[in-house]
Amino acid sequence: MTIDALARVLRQVDDLAGEMIAELRTVVRIPSISGTDDENTGQAHMSALFGAGGLDVDHWRIDLDELRAQDDFPGMEVARDEAWGLVARLPGSGTSDGATLMLNGHIDVVPPGDVDAWTDDPFSAIIRGDDLLGRGACDMKAGLIAAHWAVQAIRRSGTRLRGDLLLASVQGEEDGGLGTYALLRRGWRADACVIPEPTGLDLVPGNAGALTFRLRVRGHATHASRRLEGVSAIEKFWPVWRALQQLEGRRHRDVDPAVAKFGLTHPLSIGTLHAGDWPSSVPDLLVAEGRLGVALGEPVDDARRELEDAVADACAVDPWLREHPVEVEWWGGQFASGRLPEDSDLLRRVGAAHALASANGSGRTQDTWIGPYGSDLRLLTGIGGIPTLQYGPGDARLAHAPDESVPIADVIVTARALAALALDVCGIA
Ligand SMILES: [Zn+2]
Description:
It is a single chain. Helices cover 35% and strands 19% of the residues. The chain is of the alpha+beta class. The chain has a 6-stranded mixed beta sheet with strand order 1-2-6-3-7-14, sandwiched between helices. Strands 10-11-9-12 form a 4-stranded antiparallel beta sheet. Strands 4-5-15 form a 3-stranded antiparallel beta sheet. It is elongated. The N and C termini lie close together (10 Å). Residues 106, 139-140, 173, 197 line the site of zinc ion.
């Protein structure tokens, strides 16, 4: 690429920084929680933003029934009867032999949790010091907005690209990935993709997976005054829970060194527990929901079988559970693991773009690691066959937590890096 074009585009990003942060605050103020009407409102807002930015916009209503009927549907954990796909394309690009780059970010966010744990309204998008606060600030509206402004900088600088530059905003990422699944079914493809999820500007070329499950433990109800004549579902869950803890330990005996940065690389965790319906009754049903982490490269069916076997083994040694085995149901988000192909040059290219973008930056050294959480990466690399990695602003540890925030300087570096990457991957016409 010519140094002139790069310098022009990076300068354009810097000139747009104020507009970018103002827009990020606007988007964070839309409480686009997965499965709410505001999720669709957020997507409509992004569509209008892309259109106003002069992009060709494909904004379509997703046929959820058709999607759910597919064998490889990635799952959905919240009630949702409306969802929208959104892919925008930089016009005038893709006129010759360059490669196609997709930038893909999700507009949905998780609920704020206990609002009392926040120091301010979770959707106020206040700026405190060097950071912008709010639910979704780092996961991942900052990355999505940075991607939009990277594209805008290229457009406004008048730079024409040889290959196509695509910008996707997706819904339903937090509960399975239906948005990215839908755009792949619609036929959108690219030669490379970056998801600007919060990586602290590190390179994340893969993810462990996560499979949502539900356990039903049966008991026998009686009046609590005669509890010995009943069977408590809570007490019967206890050995099953211990078996799951032991399973988690066994599943971490040999861990891929690429993931070893994290103590537990693919945790098994119970997230909800409901039992009983009356304080003075022996509970006859306990329902537990959780997530089973999938190791990097581990087939999903193998992971499921290990959990089912562990539950069955725990039941086999208990006379009641032998007669009333715990039921295991797989539902909701089913995230396989995913990884950028070893022979892809995307890792090197994004690293180089980051180096160009942060030339006068903090001098922080860039690390490469595998995320312990599921993401859309596995759909793009798997179903789409698109080499994909994650690189974006913010610390993933703050995602889903109170006082989620993103460093404003990192948002600007991300926009600069994505713009430089687009010039490199797509080529300058
Ligand atoms: Zn995310």
